[in-house]
Amino acid sequence: MKKIVSLVLALALVLGLCSFATAEGAAKKVGIAMPTQSLERWNRDGAYLKEQFEAAGYETVLSYSDNKNDQQVNDIANMLSADVSLLIISCVDSDGLNTVLDEAAEKGIPVIAYDRMINNDAVSYYVSFDNYTVGVLQGTFVKEALDLDNAGDKTFNMEFTGGASTDPNAAYFFNGAYDQLAPYIEKGTIKVPSGQTTLAQCGTEQWSTDVALSRAQNILGSFYADDTVLDAWLCSNDSTSAGVAQAIESDYKGSNSVIVTGQDGDIANLANIVDGKQTMTVYKNVANEAVVTLSVAKAILSGEAIDGAALAAAQEVECAFDTSSYFSSPEKNTPAFLLVPTVVTKDNLSYLVDTGLYQWDADQKYLLAK
Fold first, then answer.
1. How many CB atoms lie within 10 A of CB 231?
2. What are the DSSP calls for 51-92, one per residue?
3. I need a surface site. Which of 1, 111, 278, 351 has the fewest CB within 10 A?
C-alpha cells in the first residue's frame, strides 16, 4: 500500500512540474535567428540560447543564415509562419530586415536584438556586451604593451583590421580601440605605414579570415617589404586576427614579436595565444549572454511592465541597463542590457577554464571547448 501511495505522490509531483513548465513557457515558441555557422562563436551562441530556452520549457526554432541577408529574411518569415511568440535575432545586415520585422510588429511579436543592434523599431530590447568597451580594452592593451606614455622620441608601426560593414558592432569595436590610440597617432608616436586608419579602409566583409589574410598580405608586401618593423596589429575579432596572424607568419620579414589583438576566445585563436602568434583576446561569455537573454524574454512574455534596471541588477553576472546609447532608429532609443567583457592573455587562460566552458587538453597546454 505504501508503494502505491508513493507512486501516486511521485506521479502527482511529475504532473505538477509539467504544469509548471507549461505555465512558464512550454506553450510558447521562440525563434532564434543566428547569422552564420562559419564562425565558431555563433555556433556557441545558438547552442547556448537553444539550451537555455528549452531548459526553461520553451519550444525553439533555431536557424543559421550563412551570412546571407535574404536567407535570414526567409528564416524569420518561416518563424512567423510557425507562430513564434518572440524573436531573438543576431542580424546579418542591420538594415536588411525591415519588411519581415514590420510584419512581426503587425502581428505583435516582440523582438530582442541579440549581440547586434537592428535598425528597425520592432526591436523591443537589445542584449549584448558593451561593445565600445571591447575596443577600449584592445586599444588600452596595445597602449600599455608598447608603454606609449613613456615612449619619448621612440616610434612604433601598427596596422588596423576592422569588421563587416553590415555589422553595427564593427564601428563600436573599431572606435573604442582607435579612440585610445588616436592621440599617439596624432603625436607621431604611432605610425600607420599603410595610411589606413578608418573602418571603411580597414573593414573585413563577413568578418572573413581569408579576406583579412589577403589584405594583411597586401599591406605587408607593400609597406613592410623593406624590413620596416611592425610592432602591433589591432584586429577587432578572432576570425580576422587568425588571417592577420597567418600573414605575419608567412609574409612578415621582421624577427620581432608582433602584438596582435582579437575578440571571442575561439579555440584556434587561444592556441595562437599559447604559441605566441596572437597576444590577447577580449572574451565575451556568450553562455552568460544567453542567460540574460532568457531573463529578458521571460519578462517580455509575462506581459508585465519591465523594470530594466532591477532586471539587470538581478543577474548573476555583471550587467548594466542602458537607455541612452543604442538606437533602432534615429527617433527611438532601444533599452539595452550590456554584459562586461574580459581581457584574456597567455597568463590568465585559466580564467576560461574557470567558466566551465573550456578545459585543458591532455598535455595541459591548449584549451578545448567542453
1. 19
2. HHHHHTT-EEEEEE-TT-HHHHHHHHHHHHHTT-SEEEE--S
3. 1
Domain range list for the chain = 2-129+285-341, 131-263
The average pLDDT across 311-330 equals 95
Rounded to 5°, angle at Cα 291 from 122 and 19: 90
Superfamily per CATH, domain 2-129+285-341: Response regulator (3.40.50.2300)
**For residue 13, pLDDT beyond 90:** no
Q: What is the pLDDT of residue 267?
A: 97
| CA–CA separation, 306 and 313 (whole Å) | 13
Indicate the pTM of the whole model: 0.90
Number of other CB atoms surrounding residue 137 within 10 Å: 23
Q: How many distinct helices (H) and strands (E) make up the chain?
A: 13, 17
**CB contact set of 47 (below 8 Å; sequence gap of 6+):** none
Query: 331 and 92 in contact (C-beta within 8 Å)?
Result: no
The 8-class DSSP code of residue 208 comes to -
SS3 118: coil
- Angstrom distance (rounded) from CA 135 to CA 161: 12
d(CA 297, CA 210): 36
Residue 1 pLDDT exceeds 90: no
The mean per-residue pLDDT over the stretch 27-36 comes to 94
**Whole-angstrom Cα distance, residue 59 to residue 55?**
9
**161-193: pLDDT as tens digits:** 999 999 999 999 999 999 999 999 999 999 999
Grid cell listed for 192: 600607420
pLDDT digits (tens, 9 = 90+) for 195-221: 999 999 999 999 999 999 999 999 999
Q: Which three cell numbers stand for residue 60?
A: 525553439
In order, the DSSP letters of 265-334 are --HHHHHHHHTTS--EEEE--HHHHHHHHHHHHHHHHHTS---HHHHHHTSSS-EEEESSS-EEETTEE-
Do 217 and 187 meet the contact criterion of CB atoms below 8 Å apart?
no
Q: Give the pLDDT of residue 20.
A: 39
Phi, psi of 199 (to 5 degrees): -65, -35
DSSP 8-state secondary structure symbol assigned to residue 257: P
> Do 131-263 and 2-129+285-341 have the same topology in CATH?
yes
CATH 3.40.50.2300 given to domain 131-263: yes
